Amino acid sequence: MTRDEALFEFLLRMGDNTLILGHRVSEWCGHSPVLEEDIALANTALDMIGQTQLWLGLAGEVEGKGRSADDLAFRRDAWDFRNVLLCELPNGDFGQTLMRQFLYDAWSLGMLDRLKTSSEARVAEIAEKALKEVTYHLERSGDTVIGLGDGTEESHTRMQKALDYLWPYVGEMFEKDKVDEVMIAAGIAPDPADLRPRYDETVSRVFAEATLTIPDGSYVHKGGRTGRMHTEHLGHLLTSMQWLQRAYPGAAW
Amino acid sequence: MYAQMIKSEASNEDPAKLEAFQARIDAGEKIEPRDWMPEGYRKTLIRQIGQHAHSEVVGQLPEGNWITRAPTLERKAILLAKVQDEAGHGLYLYSAAETLGVSRDELIELLHEGKMKYSSIFNYPTLNWADIGAVGWLVDGAAIVNQVALQRTSYGPYSRAMVRICKEESFHARQGYDAIRAMAFGTPAQKRQAQDALDRLWFPALMMFGPSDAESVHSEQSMAWKIKVKSNDELRQQFVDQTIPQIEYLGLDLPDPGITWNEDRGHYDFSEPDWSEFFNVIKGNGPCNVDRMADRKAAWDDGAWVRDGLLAHARKKQAANLAAE
Amino acid sequence: MKHEWPLWEIFIRGQHGLSHRHVGSLHAPDAEMAVKNARDVYTRRNEGVSIWVVEARHIAASVPSEKGPMFEPSESKIYRHPTFYDIPDEVGHM
Known about the structure:
The complex is a heterotrimer of chains A (253), B (325) and C (94).
Chain A: H1 3-26, H2 35-63, H3 69-74, H4 85-88, H5 94-115, H6 121-149, H7 153-166, H8 178-185, H9 196-209, H10 232-241, H11 243-247
Helix pairs in contact in A: 1-2, 1-8, 2-6, 5-6, 5-7, 5-9
Chain B: H1 15-26, H2 39-58, H3 60-64, H4 73-98, H5 104-112, H6 129-150, H7 156-184, H8 188-207, H9 219-224, H10 232-250, E1 260-262, E2 267-269, H11 275-285, H12 289-302, H13 304-324
Antiparallel strand pairs in B: 1-2
Chain C: E1 7-13, E2 21-27, H1 31-42, E3 50-55, H2 67-71
């Protein structure tokens, strides 16, 4: 695998995470529990769509086949997507959505913080911008997880249930394969495993305050970032997301 | 996005106070929350601003219907930002209503109980991507015509909310026109969608200004109080006059064979909307009334545990802070 | 227990060093969330660099019916305004 082939894969992983999760979050628009949260969630989704344009835009550039960010987003089938499974899981209730967001944000912050000093200047530049956005996302999703975990009995129960459901998907974010090895060797991206201590520290602190317990069991669901096996949910998401581009090929919008 | 004008209350207050109040309004003074005001003025405002706020929030739904299907990343971001703005507008307007002694939650409950209305336009479906263009262009366009006038309304908080909203609203109309323009100048299939959207949404957009002044017996008091500043027919004409050249630029067929330039009046003539359809939609028989209300209620009811949970946590924290002091 | 989140008044300082200005209100469970909500609601178009929030019930205001005694006495103090004075052209800008 050449440096650029690996870099392309790595950029798809970054861009597909924000594309798919941003899409999920945007599904809330108009349906949130209160206007203030509706507006805040839309801001998060907008930031992630913006990050997608940058990551996938660069991916297309590195690939060198003339594909734009839109081509990559709207014209690939499920097996070519490289997002972690966590991002494509359904929204569930508001608690599950915010728990998923928190679990992702905590990883994303650590990753971007390392990418800031990437040997690849274009990667560092995107990370620098995205880091500011994600810092706020994490603050907000962390606060909400704490507020709901340590809220009423009902909100606590729901948040614990969300954590139990989502936790087995966390491990995938720290997996390592050939792509990562090339990235590490080139000084472009960190070893995913190196992000784990800081991650564990963040989530432990928040869950302690939220009175939530990380479930036992070390099983990890994976297959998203390698594309080997996504969940059934991704296909449905892509069906709506890509519909216009697929139904009217060649049209400009 | 738009307030349908509603009837005002009869009043039996002190004539001297009423007269002084009217004099302030006639002098162009703004009425502020703590000022004396006739009960009818207060109630009319609560209903009009509340209805306007509800329209913004229900108005998120037809456009929100396409956020997950937007054809490019940029269009997705634009649409999401736009629909998010509607939530913001709802928020500003609820805040303005709250200065009159009613809470946002009370207003939302009245809406869900069917005791308050929202603009009839949002009971129409969005069926193809061009509808998203047409809603921004025509529906927000009509709303702007109405809201620009309402910036001069006599109630200070309402007027200030309108100023803020109008600033944000012109982005809405422009993004809509931009989206439908891409389709009108696109492939034959896209052009067909654009024409379909225009044909379906034209008359509902005209209905947004409310029934003809001749039939609208309730606007007189609202005009005197400057809760309303221009008549329904004036605003509708203004909208038609500004929109027809925009249709022509797109190369789409006019949605109404009755549209002709009237040299004597210096305005376009156009066909009356079908007002029986309008009143049916108001009564709850529009294509989407039931679904829209069900969606709003579900969001509100399903969100109750979130609102309660966050509040309970805030109170615990506050109690802990007090204990620590 | 009343379930509605308290109402907060939001003040924002814009880019150019002016004072915080009242921009509107919103609901939030506590002050920290009010600041965050204000960021999300009222600075979407790059409007601010600093946010103040005050719970609406803590604002004390002047009484409208006392507007006369409160504000009219200053109307007659026209000598407080620079335009009250004629400065000869020869003196130049002052």
